[in-house]
Design brief:
CATH architecture of the largest domain: 2-Layer Sandwich
Oligomer: single chain
Largest sheet: 5 strands, mixed
Number of strands: 10
Distance between the termini: 44 Å
Helix content: 40-55%
Strand order of the largest sheet: 3-2-1-4-5
Number of helices: 11
Number of domains: 2
Length: 365
């Protein structure tokens, strides 16, 4: 008697992308992403609009993922879904859809932490990636450093005190009149600019060597534009030089911290994941430094760096293999990960509450 392949449906709706993926025996059989363009008008994601768009998109996206994955509802052995962190309204759409599927088919529900999914997203394109590795998550909402010891075993080493790297790109682009999302616009213009044209500050934190701060960089750009371009925003070569210099400050901060921490811990492998990992200058700098220092660099394809259900499916698959399932009482949580300040809640270097990615709490309603 033939053994049927085990098939998992994964759902992601933490922000403004509605995504579903079919994972068969740990391999991605399909990935569908529906992105919301309306937020460009408002210069950022509007939570209420995002959740409404998810309601409209979720069913068609799931059906398309199942069809393109050559699967049927009866093939599913579990459904994995992002439960945290993210926009609560958006998360609830995916969570409730997953619960409905789990109940109707009588299959397990697997709650997945969005950050854990980013950390393991390297396994989509590099299934033989070795552990441990230093995982850097760089996205619109997070800038984090983890010691990824094995699937399900993580130690948080550093986080942002304020703005994430993606926020710094978006807010800088807004100051420059480039619209939203800002990262791709700055990256594109910076390709023709001189990264040494201007010296923007690198965030330094006295009480922690592993944390990040990008709010000062944004403020520096604001004052720079006020002092040098009081009447009109820069254009042409001047704009390209500013974009390149601003981008260089972000990339230099990320790379400097990541490679120093890797050396401090004796880690020989480094993974850079999240939406900002698609930045061309970041990829070039990290590749050059990794080769120089003899480190293996794990990267992700741009489609697997953004919010996507394939990475949710990878985590869901590992949890399924280990018998880790969730109660139907599990719900969405918005909590973002930010570094604590000394004297205001704990030691930013190693507070006990930051040593692992918490499992979703079934008691929270």
């Amino acid at each position: 008697m033939a053994i049927m392949p085990r098939t998992i449906l994964a759902i992601e709706s933490s922000c403004d992308d509605t995504s579903a993926s079919v994972v068969v025996e740990g391999a991605i059989a399909s990935l569908i992403i529906s992105s919301q363009a309306d937020h460009n008008t408002w210069g950022g994601v509007v939570p209420e609009l995002a959740s409404r768009a998810h309601v409209t998109a979720i069913a068609p996206v799931i059906r398309e993922a199942i069809a393109k994955g050559n699967a049927s509802w009866s093939d599913l052995v579990a459904v994995a879904v992002t439960t945290e962190p993210g926009l609560v309204g958006s998360l609830l759409v995916g969570v409730n859809a997953a619960k409905g599927i789990a109940v109707s088919l009588g299959i397990p529900l697997i709650a997945v932490n969005h950050i854990e999914a980013h950390l393991l997203s390297v396994l989509i394109d590099q299934p033989d990636a070795e552990f441990p590795y230093l995982g850097m998550v760089v996205s619109g909402g997070h800038t984090l450093l983890y010691n990824v010891k094995a699937p399900g075993e993580y130690q948080l080493l550093g986080a942002t005190r304020d703005d994430a790297a993606g926020e710094a790109f978006d807010k800088g682009a807004k100051l420059l009149g480039l619209g939203y999302p800002g990262g791709p616009a700055i990256d594109r213009l910076a390709a023709d600019g001189n990264p040494s044209a201007h010296r923007f500050p690198r965030g330094l934190i006295k009480d922690s060597r592993n944390d990040f701060s990008f709010s000062g960089l944004k403020t520096s750009l604001r004052y720079f534009l006020r002092d040098h371009y009081p009447d009109a925003l820069p254009t042409g070569t001047e704009l390209a030089d500013i974009c390149a210099s601003y981008q260089e400050a972000i990339v230099d901060t990320l790379a400097g911290t990541a490679f120093r921490v890797a050396a401090d811990l004796g880690l020989k492998r480094l993974a850079v994941v999240g939406g900002v990992a698609a930045n061309s200058r970041l990829r070039a700098v990290f590749a050059a430094r990794a080769e120089e220092k003899g480190l293996a660099l794990y990267s992700v394809r741009p489609i697997h760096g953004t919010d996507n259900a394939a990475m949710i499916g990878i985590v869901g698959w590992h949890k399924f293999l280990n018998g880790v399932v969730s109660p139907l009482t599990v719900t969405a949580r918005s909590a973002m990960i930010r570094a604590e300040r000394k004297g205001k809640g704990g030691d930013a270097d190693a507070p006990a509450s930051r040593t692992r990615i918490p499992e979703p709490d079934a008691d929270i309603e």
